[in-house]
Amino acid sequence: MSADNMVGTEGQANSRRRRRAEGEEKPAIWVGYGKPAKLFRTRKGLTRQELADAVGYSIEQVASIEQGRRPAKAAFTEATERVLGADGVLAELREDVDRAKLPKFFQDFASIEAEAVSRFDYDPLLVPGLLQAEGYTRALFLSHYPPLGDETVELHTEARLNRQKVLTKAPIVQLSFIIGEAALTVAESVSEVVVRDSKNMTGARVHVGREAWAAFLSDSGGCSVC
Predict the structure, then answer these.
(1) Cα 98 from Cα 109, distance rounded (Å)
(2) Where do the domains of the chain lie?
(3) Distance CA 162, CA 207 (A)
(4) Which is nearest to 134 in space by CA: 90, 87, 192?
(5) How far is it, in rounded angstroms, from Cα 99 to Cα 114?
(6) Is the CATH number 1.10.260.40 carried by domain 28-99?
(7) 145 closest CA partner among 215, 211, 42, 223
(8) How far is CA 213 from CA 52, 134, 208, in A?
(9) Per residue in 157-200, pLDDT tens?
(10) Residue 75 needs a FRET pair 20 to 30 A away by CA distance; which of 2, 3, 137, 184 works?
(11) How far apart are CA 201 and CA 207, in angstroms?
(12) HSE-up (13 A, CA, CB side) for residue 195
């Protein structure tokens, strides 16, 4: 192997390590979704542009999903199933695609959470993930150390909010949350960071003060919880 090739190989390995450190290596299930999506499209005799026009996405987005570089959202799956006649194949994969947006260490727990009939939480420092509003969730991921890439922050935020379907699904899941005063002290006092009322998804909000949030992050050394 030439020195140039050795340097190139080492650079690629370093790049992979950096992506793994940031959580940005693409999950295999995204490829596992993209390949049948492409197969259904070609069997239907459609180009990527034609499919993009039919489902309301750009050709770049369709290409990224077929190549496993981006996860498909629910709206894409529903529209693609309808246009391509995928017989539920893509819909069956969607839950796994969504779960892969979560940090790897949390994915097994998320699978259990989705099937649980009851859950009891004690959270002394943070508002539980199932009760977090978007601003609070995003602020946590933006405070992660080492820093996460923008794409990873968005994927993790979307995945956490998607888990909150358990709050309204039928049959009703028995949920109980005991939240430490420290978590609510922070939550009472960062602007733009809010917490959902567990009893009403559209109801009361608890606002979080910037100074309290900064002090909390300083004490905790950043956050990587779900």
Answers:
(1) 14
(2) 28-99, 104-220
(3) 21
(4) 192
(5) 10
(6) yes
(7) 223
(8) 42, 15, 7
(9) 999 999 998 888 888 889 888 888 777 766 554 444 555 544 55
(10) 137
(11) 15
(12) 22
Show the tokens assigned to 45. Answer: 């005799």
Print the SS3 string covering the chain: CCHHHHHHHHHHHHHHHHHHHHCCCCCHHHHHHHHHHHHHHHHCCCCHHHHHHHHCCCHHHHHHHHCCCCCCCHHHHHHHHHHHCCCCHHHHHHHHHHHCCCCHHHHHHHHHHHHCCEEEEEECCCCCHHHECHHHHHHHHHCCCCCCCHHHHHHHHHHHHHHHHHHCCCCCCEEEEEECHHHHHHHHCCCCCEEEECCEEEEEEEECCHHHHHHHHHHHCCCCCC
Tens-place pLDDT, residues 106-153 = 999 999 998 999 998 888 888 889 988 888 888 889 888 899 999 889
List the Cα angle 129/132/133 in 5-degree steps.
Answer: 145
Token representation of residue 167? 């709050």
107's tokens: 């994915």
